[in-house]
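Anyone opening a protein record will find just a pair of labelled lines. A complete record is shown below as an example.
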Amino acid sequence: DLDCRLMAKFFHDEWLYDLQNYHYSRALRSIKQQEDVPDLLVSLLQLMAERRELNIQPVMNQKLRTELLEATGFQLFWHEDPEDEQLANYLYDLEAKLRNEQIIDFVRAVSPAIYRIFMRLIQLKIPDITNYIHNSKESSYDRWKFESLHASENPILQQFHSESVVNSSSLTELIVQLDLPDSVKVAAQQLRELEKSVRNPLAHLIKPFDEEELHRTTGFSSQDFMKNLVDLASYTGIHYDQANFYFDQANAVMEELLKEK
């Protein structure tokens, strides 16, 4: 009996450790080996593992959302549009990386979020901006259609000159010219600088890259960058609770569900 209790305690400690570090697929594997675990717990853990894999399709389940909300008060997802939810999910994943002090992983994964946020900022002022972008299936970057830009009726687009690829650099050049608050423009420029200043050191990693090195290279902390990402995403209509991290809310619910078994 003592052995059973010790095993149970070991499982529980190990499982909590995985939860607190957002290692959901490992937590899921170990919970499946336990008996009489509440179905709702397994479902929720499965979806958190999907989120860490950046798959949001299975997460956007209305039936489960309602069931969880009624049973636990936890909101499974906040956006009806999958693209909005995907961006929020990128931010959850980036914050999880920071909380685990995975600075290199954070910096390497930040580009898709920056690109999406910058496109959304531009779309607030130029909803049809994608008409001016040639989608390059074969190369890694899309390209600006300069003829269309210069033929457009929008004076900002007529005057717009940049390198031909659509990247965070040319998007920032456009953002700065739009009628957006200065705080938004400054945050966008800082994110652009982050990307630029860390890409080279990371490409030729000679020494360990940590929080200190990030601060030395950019003058900012990873928290500053995370805040910029969240502030800009929120400005474009993304729901993100900065005070109560989404995965921590999910963890609290899962711990409760496990206690109830």
